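tool_call: predict_structure(chain=1)
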Amino acid sequence: MLRQQKKLACLQEELRTLALLDRVLDYSLNPDPADNLAHASRELRRSQIEAEIRKLSPSKPEYANHTRIASAALLLCVVGYLTLHYFLK
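tool_result:
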């Protein structure tokens, strides 16, 4: 899970970098054809990054379901421990 979070952070940082480069291109006074080519390649990379982020991002309902199951198991263990402690007293 930690590796996945690091990968997501890297991809989001790369998206911010691409957005910064696009802003620099927007403010340039004399864009040349190489700038337009670079912009097109950045757009392609941006779509690849967004697809990868969607693939790596955990779905919210699945995460909530795991949390709910873990909470129920923890509650069951606590109740069991307290019951055992009460009866062995």
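agent: The chain has three helices and no strands. Proceeding to next step.
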